[in-house]
Amino acid sequence: MARSIKKLPMLPAERALKVISGRWKAVILYYLFDGPRRLSALKALMPGITQKVLIEQLREMEEHGLVSREIFAEVPARVEYSATPLGLSLEPILLALCQWGQHHADALDEKHRLADCIIRPRQPDQVSANK
Questions:
Q1: Is-contact 39 55, C-beta < 8 A?
Q2: How far apart are CA 52 and CA 56, in angstroms?
């Protein structure tokens, strides 16, 4: 019997890892922690991702309640993506993962291979706008 793609594991930690795993999901959330962004702005921040993969990752995160998509009634249509309250709740977790990743790289003498992953504090107006 084939396992449904949408079926998530029962173990909470495994479920959480499955929801946030993916080559780009943490990076996308990292940029959405600062506020809503258009697809083109996200793409510009991540030159290594294809538009197809970016859209797929955003759709998966939308399906899991981490990201919302707002379509504005304009010509041409404008679409913005933002982190939902559930997505924003991952901010301290991703920061902890960044810190652990830095510790791990230090332990293996590979710190030179890391990019910065400092999660910047949001302005008070961004915090209230995303709730």
A1: yes
A2: 6
**Residues 6 or more apart in contact with residue 27 via CB below 8 angstroms:** 46
Are 81 and 36 a contacting pair, CB within 8 Å? yes
| Domains defined for the chain, CATH in brackets | 13-129 (1.10.10.10)
pTM for the structure as a whole = 0.77
DSSP 23-83: TTHHHHHHHHTT--EEHHHHHHH-TTS-HHHHHHHHHHHHHTTSEEEEEES-SS-EEEEEE
pLDDT, tens digit (0-9, with 9 covering 90-100), for 6-27: 677 678 888 888 889 888 999 9
pLDDT in tens, 46-67: 989 999 999 999 999 999 999 9
